[in-house]
Structures are given as structure tokens and as C-alpha cells.
Design goal:
Elements lengths: L2 E6 L5 E4 L1 H9 L7 H4 L11 H15 L5 E6 L5 E12 L3 E13 L16 E5 L5 E3 L2 E3 L1 H12 L5 E5 L2 H12 L4
Parallel strand pairs: 6-9
Antiparallel strand pairs: 1-2, 1-5, 3-4, 4-5, 6-7, 7-8
């Protein structure tokens, strides 16, 4: 299985990346996110959405308090690949937190390019789950590829604006993990 890791200090600054980090960044079509470019930056620069940041802070605080590792599922998609992953947050020497991402399953898939382009967006903002990448519309959560195809069919080149959040299923999973209870 493909894995990468990075470590953050007590101020949540990225201080180390594994050699496989660069390979992962390039495979995810994000060479600008290679290790040298992100070292010394706050990890929060790379997390979108207040709710997502809040939950990660809770996870980091729990691990830092000595209550053990946290393992969470999440997705990390690129323009041509859907990646189902797990993230292990663990405490290592010198009170650094290590975040290790492991690819569980990769599927080749071409999502609509507008999901990855930086362009002007309409005023309507859609929530996207920071963990599973499902998109909320009208109170219902859809897989991102289904939502993207529907958006493209009805709105052509217009592109939705996204704000990261968390769907009810992932909120339940993260809350359960934070409480330390078993599923």
C-alpha cells in the first residue's frame, strides 16, 4: 500500500515530510505541494472549512494529550484518481504529531475538470465533506462524481463554489473516534 507521512510541531507547523510525500504530491497532480514547498508552513493552510479545521484540532489535541492514536478514513482525489485512504494521527518523539496517510483503494476516474480549476464561481456555495468528499445539495449528500456530472449537465461551464464541512456519517465516525469508543 502507498503511504506518506508528515510531522507537525506544537504550533502545527509542518517540520518534516517522508520521501514518499513528494511522490504522492506529484501523483495527485500537485507538484507545488512537494515537501520543500510546505515545510515551515502551518498545516492549517492546507485544510479548508472551519468545521473541518475544528475537528482536526480536536483530533490533534486528543492525540497530544496521550489518549492514543486516531485512525480516520478520508478521500484524497486528483483529476484522474479517486483515493480512499486512512489517516493515522500519532504522537512521536519530541511531542511531534505524525500524520500518516495510507491509500486503501485507488480508482482511475476522470472527474470534471471544473472541480480542480481556480476560476470565478457562482454565489451559491455547496458543502463538500472534508473526509469522504460527498457533496450536500438540498439536505442530501451525494458522491462527488455523481454531483459533478449532474452539475455539469445542468450548468455547463458554470462552476459551483465549495465550502468544506462534514457530512452526518463522517461527523458520527469522527465523534466516535474522538470519544475513544469502538464502532
Amino acid at each position: 500500500m502507498t503511504s506518506y507521512a508528515y510531522r507537525i510541531d506544537s504550533r502545527d507547523t509542518i517540520v518534516w515530510c517522508s520521501e514518499s510525500w513528494d511522490d504522492f504530491a506529484v501523483a495527485n497532480e500537485a507538484p507545488e505541494a512537494c515537501g520543500e514547498a510546505i515545510l515551515g508552513h502551518s498545516v492549517w493552510r492546507y485544510f479548508e472549512g472551519l468545521e473541518t479545521r475544528h475537528l482536526y484540532r480536536m483530533c490533534f489535541n486528543r492525540v497530544r494529550s496521550g489518549l492514543g492514536d486516531i485512525v480516520l478514513p478520508f478521500r484524497c482525489d486528483g483529476p484522474t484518481t479517486i483515493r480512499e485512504m486512512k489517516l493515522r494521527i500519532s504522537l512521536c518523539r519530541n511531542k511531534l504529531l505524525q500524520n500518516t496517510g495510507t491509500v486503501i483503494r485507488e480508482t482511475s476516474h476522470r472527474l470534471p475538470q471544473f472541480l480542480f480549476q481556480q476560476t470565478t464561481r457562482p454565489e451559491r456555495i455547496m458543502s463538500i465533506c472534508g473526509w469522504c468528499k460527498r457533496v450536500e445539495s438540498g439536505g442530501v449528500w451525494f458522491d462527488i462524481d455523481d454531483a459533478a456530472r449532474a452539475w455539469e449537465a445542468f450548468n455547463g461551464d458554470s462552476q459551483p463554489a465549495f465550502s468544506h464541512g462534514i457530512c452526518p456519517s463522517c461527523r458520527k465516525l469522527v465523534t466516535r473516534e474522538l470519544s475513544g469508543s469502538e464502532a
